[in-house]
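Field log, afternoon session.

UNIT: design team B
ACTIVITY: writing a sequence onto a fixed backbone
BACKBONE:
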């Protein structure tokens, strides 16, 4: 089948990596994704395959055993994986956010300790900002770290932790008032801690509990959990970067990578929805001809394909901007906003093309219809993206009166 959303200017190495990932998706993910999703089963065999391909080290520098590839390469791989099953792309997303934060902000000891094992896939990363009562309002975090000798004691409850059970390293954002006088802006009194733990559920280390999986409408297979800290002691050398008060900026840098990832996931899911829709439209007959020959369906297919192309172009632009070292919060926000909204619309149009069969669990589009909504809220809602975009536009186009 002809392919939408081609990317110009890729190197031979990038093309080879993408071809390998696409083959893996077609052979190892698509044939089993819907069955595993319906059982809400963690895709261990798929994850093991990704580990063998070296994808857990895709963006980690070669000096730490990774492939040292760009954010663009990573985003295009995520697009391919999400085309097969979005949950699998979620498993590697949080891993890479933590690896990126370590690469950009970690001490040399932290990089040496964690990155080689993360590149090999032996340590799986997760990160945690949200809490039960705050949603997108990160400044309202109440989880707290208190200095106690050569360690910190952490208390509080975190929410919506992707890979909460299967991860062995969690980057946790909490308040840390030590060294920051009363009245300090909330975002200047936050610290990221690198919390090592055993995979699994229950008490995974003294003072740290990961309750069971949260039951979700979609985005199944991957474990989404809470994280409860009750007297959790963390050595001072596990403060990301070695200095308190920088956690908010470190997390926001990581979230920019995450927003490109979510945009890539939206592109991948939309691509798959289009493939399913255009195939079904040529197989299903009504009034004596394939429904693809009805103008109403052709209009839908035209709109769907255009949205897939537009979202892909914005995602690629945001990734390349980040790779260049330039500030990309505007581009990442735009890409995440557009790709998630277009994904929802393309999936719904494909669902409509399938008619009553789209409502059946026997058809793949039913799964995509439940998965797409997560992208509307993951890494910041559409409303949050529009706030970011609006503020940045006012910075760029400040009226000189």
């Amino acid at each position: 089948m002809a392919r939408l959303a081609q990317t110009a200017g890729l190197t031979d190495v990038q093309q080879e990596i993408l071809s390998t990932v696409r083959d893996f998706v077609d052979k190892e993910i698509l044939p089993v994704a819907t069955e595993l999703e319906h059982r809400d089963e963690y895709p261990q065999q798929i994850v093991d395959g990704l580990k063998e391909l070296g994808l857990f080290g895709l963006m980690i520098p070669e000096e730490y055993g990774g492939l040292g590839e760009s954010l663009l390469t990573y985003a295009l791989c995520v697009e391919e994986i999400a085309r097969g099953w979005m949950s699998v792309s979620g498993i590697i997303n949080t891993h890479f956010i933590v690896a990126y934060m370590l690469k950009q902000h970690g001490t040399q000891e932290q990089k040496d300790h964690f990155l080689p094992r993360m590149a090999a896939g032996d340590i799986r990363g997760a990160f945690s900002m949200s809490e039960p009562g705050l949603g997108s309002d990160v400044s309202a975090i109440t989880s707290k770290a208190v200095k106690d000798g050569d360690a910190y004691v952490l208390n509080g409850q975190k929410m919506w932790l992707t890979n909460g059970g299967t991860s062995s390293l969690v980057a946790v954002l909490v308040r840390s008032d030590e060294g920051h006088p009363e009245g300090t802006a909330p975002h200047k009194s936050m610290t990221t801690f690198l919390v090592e733990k055993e995979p699994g559920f229950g008490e995974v280390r003294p003072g740290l509990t990961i309750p069971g999986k949260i039951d979700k409408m979609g985005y199944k297979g991957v474990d989404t959990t809470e994280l409860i800290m009750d007297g959790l002691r963390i050595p001072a050398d596990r403060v990301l970067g070695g200095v308190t008060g920088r956690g908010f900026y470190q997390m926001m840098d990581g979230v920019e990578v995450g927003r490109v990832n979510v945009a890539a996931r939206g592109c991948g899911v939309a691509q798959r929805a289009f493939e399913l829709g255009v195939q079904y439209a040529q197989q299903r007959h009504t009034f004596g001809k394939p429904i693809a020959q009805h103008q109403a369906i052709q209009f839908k297919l035209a709109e769907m394909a255009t949205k897939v192309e537009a979202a892909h172009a914005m995602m690629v632009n945001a990734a390349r901007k980040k790779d260049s070292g330039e500030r990309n919060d505007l581009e990442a926000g735009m890409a995440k906003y557009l790709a998630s909204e277009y994904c929802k619309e393309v999936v719904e149009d494909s669902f409509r093309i399938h008619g009553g069969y789209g409502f059946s669990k026997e058809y793949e589009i039913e799964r995509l219809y439940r998965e797409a909504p997560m992208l509307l809220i993951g890494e910041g809602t559409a409303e949050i993206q529009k706030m970011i975009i609006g503020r940045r536009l006012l910075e760029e186009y400040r009226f000189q009166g």
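LOG NOTE: The longest helix spans residues 247-283.
NEXT ACTIVITY: expression trials, pending approval
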